[in-house]
């Protein structure tokens, strides 16, 4: 027993995390909130998380090379526009290529402004976002003026889709041309505590995976390998930490920054193309809905690491998926928040942090009362769940993060010490 | 500073605009339209009496929005959240104004104050999060934009809505302000009754500009703000408290942002509806950058952007996509920030050269 308490003491964050997951599972057992852990929800989570993940990976390349990129949103807009346009004309894979290209061009513009001309990174990013929104609108008018389905704010529906696969035996894929059993689906249908929920998670992540999703997910280990295990990655990161030193070692600082920022554009463009091709099948104005900004936030609280971005985007994807699939289950989250806040307040009160404890206790009661007196959460609130999650997570995490040392500082060749 | 450097600095915006026009011309040729015809059409339409009034009216909120952004810029803070701040402020002010019954000057004034306070508090959250929790203001203001938009949508649909005649349907808009809460247009005073209404809040915009100039260049608070923006470490040692300044700057910036929606609220719509203009917060960033945070420069910038928006309306009738204006705005802003930076650096190096030459002479 004392081992158990020692574990809690040494691993406060892990314990807290496990505690949240445990109560999520418990709440998911209630019939109304069963959507919290079904394979359908997790499949949607993945589809919605991947655009944020991709843009976030791009953000890592840019920020690791020392350039803040709030233009991710604009580059993503370009990805959606070019992705939809080429997919409409030539098919989905051309859409992917065009989306990457569109983002890349805007990444290059950001690189020219911030690296060659040393414009303030945030100013340039804002300009990129404004330019991208204007460009997308203008291109739509020019390209879709004579199309019956398209117009100034949307494209015609794209034709064709990217094929998908399922794992054999586990989630009903084909093996040597034969249909196999869907083991995870069977387990999920048993409605067993924990086992069915885990099966839902695994099933959602392995059933009907499109090849594009597979490529997107495999970019996480690839980025980790490139950034931390290759000379190129080391050079790129050193430029973001200490450009003057890097220069003195013969690294081409400008080139590294150019590559980092342009890559971030390409990744964001891919993110936009994914959004169009896998989610909506059509380009719509404002479709990105701030996902580029959320991606940037996930870079920050993912501590500038691909795994962190993966977790952050997963969290947002989950919030988004619940909002889209079942409003009742979002209501269940109110109960979860209330329980977690209650536990937090008890912990704080025991540690003599009475003020924070009292605040958290009050909020716990607030959410509890809200939960009991309502049957659903208003749509408008659900819509900004990801954004408020960003603020809350960042306010708890910001002090513990370590950003690349010279990120955001303009660097001019030969001006350093 | 040598005189030619001063002239160069002064004409940078003109150079930047010339480059932007060049790029726009290129795009027009690419889509097979006549650039000369396009610009002539825009100029002719944009300089009619009706258009000029419309341009002035559009400039009012744009200018105030730019000033709100500029207050932040002056101390190195990016308030990208003017968008969320002003819509939230305008909605609450509209509701309070619709409920209250007060004599005219007091009624209008109360509406302004409510808007400024609500928007200020909304911006203050970002300041607080930055100081206490280390959350960068760019991220927090962007997130608060989305949250603010959601809250406005919720309040409009569920709390402040207006019932239609049959008392059955909810219409998402606030009730009209009573007569005492409205500002009449300036036309009668100026003797231009035959033209469209000129919004009298233009006087408010001028006051905002003067207030901004006074605050930033003539008060010790403004000095501290600018000092912190230029060199935070030096400012700290001179006695400025950066944390206090951050929160204060956000509160002031947000307070000014609250006035962005006022020309439309008290002078035009007289209520908050779903037609209430959005996007002014982001346009304000463009104008602030264009006008280099200078009170007069931003006024010219606001007029220019309004001119582009208004004059492009004629283009569709002549089979030229009016959206060329959207792309023009984007090009202008990008070219402007790049050329300002290039010129700033050029002048800096020239001054260093000049100074070193003078030192050489002395020896």
* Largest sheet data of chain B: 2 strands, antiparallel
**Class by alpha and beta content of chain A:** mainly alpha
Indicate the percent of residues in helices of chain B. over 70%
- Which descriptor suits the 3D outline of chain B? globular
Order of helices and strands of chain A: HHHHHHEEEHHEHHHHHHHHHH
* CATH class descriptor of the domain at 31-159 and 202-325 and 384-400 in chain A: Mainly Alpha
Our count of domains of chain B comes out at 2
Describe the structure.
The complex is a heterodimer of chains A (417) and B (363). With 417 residues, chain A is mainly α. Chain A has a domain at 31-159 and 202-325 and 384-400: ABC transporter involved in vitamin B12 uptake, BtuC. Helices cover 71% and strands 2% of the residues of chain A. In chain A, strands 1-4 form a two-stranded antiparallel ribbon. A two-stranded antiparallel sheet of chain A has the order 2-3. In chain A, strand 2 and strand 3 (178-179) form a beta hairpin. The termini of chain A are far apart. The model of chain A has no long low-confidence stretch (mean pLDDT 86). Chain B contains 15 helices and 2 strands. Chain B has helices at residues 3-30, 35-46, 49-74, 82-99, 104-133, 137-158, 187-190, 202-218, 220-230, 232-237, 242-258, 262-269, 280-290, 295-311, 324-362; strands spanning 162-163, 170-171. In chain B, helix 1 runs antiparallel to helix 15 (324-362) and helix 5 packs across helix 6. The longest helix of chain B is centred in the C-terminal third of the chain and has 39 residues, at 324-362. The interface between A and B is large, with 45 and 43 residues.
């Amino acid at each position: 027993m004392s081992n158990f308490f020692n574990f809690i003491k040494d691993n406060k964050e892990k314990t807290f995390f496990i505690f949240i997951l445990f109560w999520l599972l418990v709440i998911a057992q209630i019939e109304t909130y069963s959507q919290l852990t079904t394979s359908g929800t997790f499949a949607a989570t993945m589809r919605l998380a991947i655009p944020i993940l991709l843009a976030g990976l791009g953000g890592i390349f840019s920020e690791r090379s020392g350039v803040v990129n709030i233009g991710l949103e604009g580059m993503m807009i370009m990805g959606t526009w070019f992705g939809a346009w080429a997919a409409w004309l030539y098919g989905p894979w051309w859409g992917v290529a065009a989306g990457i290209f569109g983002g890349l061009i805007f990444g290059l513009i950001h690189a020219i402004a911030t690296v060659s001309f040393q414009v303030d990174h945030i100013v340039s990013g804002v300009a990129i976002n404004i330019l991208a929104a204007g460009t997308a609108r203008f291109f739509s008018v020019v390209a879709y003026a004579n199309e019956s389905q398209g117009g100034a704010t949307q494209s015609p529906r794209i034709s064709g889709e990217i094929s998908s696969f399922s794992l054999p035996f586990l989630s009903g894929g084909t093996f040597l041309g034969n249909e196999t059993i869907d083991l995870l689906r069977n387990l999920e249908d048993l409605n067993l505590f924990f086992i069915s929920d885990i099966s839902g998670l695994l099933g959602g992540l392995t059933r009907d995976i499109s090849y594009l999703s597979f490529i997107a997910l495999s970019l996480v280990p690839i980025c980790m390998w490139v950034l931390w295990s290759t000379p190129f990655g080391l050079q790129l990161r050193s430029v973001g930490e200490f450009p003057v030193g890097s220069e003195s070692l013969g690294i081409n600082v400008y080139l590294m920054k150019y590559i980092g920022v342009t890559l971030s554009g390409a990744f964001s463009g891919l993110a936009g193309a994914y959004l169009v091709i896998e989610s909506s099948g059509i380009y719509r104005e404002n479709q990105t809905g701030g996902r580029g900004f959320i991606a940037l936030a996930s870079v920050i609280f993912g501590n500038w690491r691909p795994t962190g971005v993966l977790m952050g985007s997963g969290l947002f994807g989950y919030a988004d998926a619940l909002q889209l699939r079942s409003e009742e289950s979002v209501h269940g989250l109110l109960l979860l928040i209330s329980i977690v806040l209650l536990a937090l307040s008890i912990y704080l009160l025991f540690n003599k942090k009475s003020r924070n404890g009292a605040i958290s206790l009050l909020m716990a009661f607030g959410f509890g009362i809200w939960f009991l007196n309502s049957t659903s959460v208003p749509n408008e609130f659900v819509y900004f769940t990801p954004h408020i999650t960003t603020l809350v997570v960042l306010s708890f995490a910001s002090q513990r993060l370590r950003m690349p040392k010279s990120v955001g500082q303009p660097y001019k060749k030969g001006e350093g010490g | 500073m040598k005189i030619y450097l001063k002239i160069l600095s002064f004409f940078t915006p003109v150079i930047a605009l010339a480059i932007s026009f060049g790029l726009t011309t290129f795009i027009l040729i690419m889509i097979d339209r006549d650039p000369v015809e396009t610009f002539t059409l825009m100029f002719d339409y944009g300089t009619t009496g009706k258009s000029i009034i419309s341009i002035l009216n559009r400039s009012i909120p744009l200018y105030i929005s730019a000033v709100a952004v500029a207050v932040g810029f002056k101390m190195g803070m990016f308030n990208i959240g003017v968008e969320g701040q002003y819509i939230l402020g305008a909605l609450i002010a509209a509701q309070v104004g619709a409920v209250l019954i007060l004599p005219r000057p007091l009624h209008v004034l109360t509406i302004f104050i409510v808007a400024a306070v609500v928007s200020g508090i909304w911006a203050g959250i970002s300041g607080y999060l930055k100081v206490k929790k280390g959350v960068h203001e760019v991220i927090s203001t962007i997130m608060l934009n989305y949250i603010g938009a959601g809250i406005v949508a919720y309040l409009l649909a569920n709390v402040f809505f207006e019932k239609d005649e049959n008392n059955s349907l909810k219409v998402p808009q606030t009730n009209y302000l009573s007569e005492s809460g409205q500002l009449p247009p300036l036309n009668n005073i100026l003797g231009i009754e035959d033209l469209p209404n000129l919004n009298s809040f233009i006087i408010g915009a001028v006051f905002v500009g003067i207030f901004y100039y006074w605050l930033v260049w003539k008060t010790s608070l403004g000095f501290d703000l600018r000092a912190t923006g230029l060199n935070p470490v030096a400012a700290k040692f001179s006695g400025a408290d950066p944390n206090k300044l951050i929160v204060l700057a956000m509160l002031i910036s947000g307070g000014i942002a609250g006035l962005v929606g006022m020309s439309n609220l008290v002078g035009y719509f007289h209520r908050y509806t779903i037609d209430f203009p959005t996007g002014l917060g982001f346009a304000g960033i463009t104008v602030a950058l264009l006008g280099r945070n200078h009170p007069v420069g931003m006024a010219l910038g606001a007029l220019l952007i309004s001119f582009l928006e208004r004059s492009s309306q004629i283009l569709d009738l002549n089979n030229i996509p009016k959206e060329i204006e959207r792309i023009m705005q984007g090009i202008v802003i990008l070219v402007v920030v790049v050329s300002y930076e290039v010129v700033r650096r050029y002048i800096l190096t020239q001054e260093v050269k000049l100074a070193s030459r003078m030192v050489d002479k002395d020896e």
